[in-house]
Specification:
This protein is mainly beta. The chain folds into 3 domains: 141 residues, Elongation Factor Tu (Ef-tu), domain 3, CATH 2.40.30.10; 106 residues, Ribosomal Protein L3, Chain: B, domain 2 (2-Layer Sandwich); 36 residues, no CATH class. It is built from 3 helices and 14 strands. A 6-stranded antiparallel β-barrel has the order 2-3-12-11-8-13. A 5-stranded antiparallel beta sheet has the order 1-7-6-4-5. It is globular.
């Protein structure tokens, strides 16, 4: 009988390597979508994940066999209190990528911002503004630093989270004029996003600590008579060469990774969070008191974790940005 080579499927995805811990709770956004509208605005928003519930909507996908019928969908609720832009940044193109060359901070800054970063003393706002305008022709991107206001959210902290957002505009001059108009003011989620559009949700996933290869990669548990271990890889490599390939499942950090969920549809937005808060509040979060939005499906992260929303960078083909018809939202207790 001829010898048959044994084959086994690849266990776990190699798409997210290395599987290390995220450096901070607020994720970094490395790419921004192309913005073709003539009205300048920030290309995203930041909020706090509150929890999940379910809703009944009318199917509006023209390619669906259930078009016009009601269906039940899972929704994630994000608490989105107003954010405050406090800095305008100008970036120039260099052979090594974009480089920050000028920055203007707001005249009046929130006292809570001192908890996150050191604030400058005797800051000359007018001089910095004049310097920024003199370099305006060399800028290829204008971005803004914004900070959250946790006192207005359901999270039990005062320290704001700082994040950077690109200003979408036809030119750097128009982006700067828009940035000046909102610098130091409160910006609400309704000023940036609309119902029915697609957004990308970027957050840091729930952490599970140091785990073995069965939990981390999903490998098979060996038979009970295996030598030394059952919850491990049978062979991690040959004697020669004497090294272990990166493709071999090994134990290590599991969870607390930065992940992006693409094309989450905004099902509903509102100003009174009490109308969609379940009785008894969201588990481990509480009651939403102000602005909120509901996303179709689940998103990365755990409750109370910052979630960065960005206009969809690769939207679905044929998608039409139209409000969703919602007929019911479950507010039954999740306790």
């Amino acid at each position: 009988m001829a010898h048959r080579k044994k084959n086994a499927p690849r266990r776990g995805s190699l798409a997210y390597l290395p599987r290390g811990r995220a450096s901070k709770f607020v994720p970094r956004i490395k790419n921004w979508p192309a913005y073709e509208d003539s009205t300048p605005k920030l290309l995203g928003f930041i909020g706090y994940k509150a929890g999940m519930t379910h809703a009944v909507i009318t199917e509006d996908n023209p390619n669906s066999p259930f078009k016009g019928q009601e269906k039940v969908i899972p929704v994630t609720v994000v608490d989105t209190p107003p954010v405050r832009p406090f800095s305008v940044r100008g970036y120039e193109a260099t052979p090594y990528g974009l480089k920050l060359t000028s920055e203007v901070m707001a005249e009046s800054l929130s006292e809570d911002l001192k908890k996150t970063l050191p604030l400058p003393k005797d800051y000359d706002h007018a001089a910095k503004l004049k310097e920024f305008e003199s370099k305006l022709d060399s800028f290829v991107e204008v971005r803004m630093l914004v900070h959250t206001q946790p006192r207005l959210a359901g999270v039990s902290k005062k320290k704001p989270d700082v994040s950077e957002y690109k200003v979408g505009a036809p030119s750097a001059a128009e982006a700067f004029e828009y940035a000046k108009s909102i610098l130091g003011t409160d910006v609400r989620v309704a000023d940036i996003l609309n119902e029915g559009i697609l957004v990308d949700s970027i957050a840091v996933t729930k952490g599970h600590g140091f785990q073995g290869p069965v939990r981390r990669w999903g490998i098979r548990i060996l038979q009970h008579k295996s030598r030394k271990t059952k919850r491990g890889v049978g062979c991690i490599g040959p004697w020669s060469p004497t090294n272990i390939r990166y493709t071999v499942p090994r134990p290590g950090q599991t969870g607390f990774h930065t992940r992006t969920s693409f094309n989450n549809k905004i099902v509903k937005m509102g100003e009174r969070g009490e109308e969609i808060t379940p009785s008894g509040g969201f588990v481990n979060y509480g009651v939403i008191r102000g602005d909120y939005l509901m996303l179709h499906g689940s998103i990365p992260g755990t409750v109370k974790r910052p979630v960065r929303l960005r206009l969809a960078i690769r939207p679905k083909k044929g998608h039409v940005d139209a409000p969703v018809q919602v007929s019911y939202i479950s507010t039954s207790s999740k306790q």
